[in-house]
Amino acid sequence: MIDMTIPQKFSLIPKSSFCNNNLGFGSSELRVYDMTHIRLSNVSLSYNLPAMLIDKTPFRQVTVTVSGDNLYMFAPNIPKGSGIDPSLYSMGGNWRGFDFNTGATGSRIGGSVNVRF
Length: 117
Known about the structure:
The protein has one helix spanning about 50-55; strands at about 40-50, 60-75, 110-115. By secondary structure, the protein is mainly beta.
């Protein structure tokens, strides 16, 4: 049997998982984290312009809306910079949080203006 392990001081992959878990992509007890998290996933704020601002226009009502998705995530037990997102489920099975060939959960901010005549 050939020993394929890399000395720990030269490897970012824990020695216990290098050969046994698909070259570091499998789960290892050293890389199991509590996925408890709080996420601010959807926020929307709307404002109807006052009638005195739109009296001399052809508009009956103007509503301005600002919205955002995935604006904040607090995950105290996940290492900083690890890139783990507890809401991802791209591999099936017991691979929750592992991002493999999926886009990252990004933040989005948008707005709209609704006008009634």
